[in-house]
Amino acid sequence: REGTSIMYDFLDQIESGTATKKTVSDMINLGKLMQKASLCGLGQAAPNPIFSALRYFREQFDAKLKDGGTNE
């Protein structure tokens, strides 16, 4: 429940251009934690659209970062 709102905040930072590479790294780490620690299927699946977007559109995410480039 709380992880999804934090993920939203990370995405909002990326969209507004205030995010850094660390923001994306933290978002990925939080998503992995949500998948493993959530007790319900919704929580486990919530990060999947973000992971998919990062997989196929990473360049667009990186273009919005203050410090540019990928961290991984």
Tell me, what's the shape?
Answer: elongated
Unreliable stretches: none
Question: Order of helices and strands, N to C?
Answer: HHHH
Structural class: mainly alpha
Q: Tally of extended strands?
A: 0
Strand content: under 5%
Q: How many angstroms does the end-to-end distance come to?
A: 27 Å
- Helix content range: over 70%
* Overall residue-averaged pLDDT value: 90
Summarize the structure.
With 72 residues, the protein is mainly alpha-helical. It has helices at residues 2-16, 21-37, 41-45, 48-63.
Task: Outline the structure in words.
With 72 residues, this protein is an all-alpha fold. The longest helix has 17 residues. 12% of the residues are buried.
Describe the secondary-structure layout.
Elements lengths: L1 H15 L4 H17 L3 H5 L2 H16 L9
Features:
single chain, mainly alpha
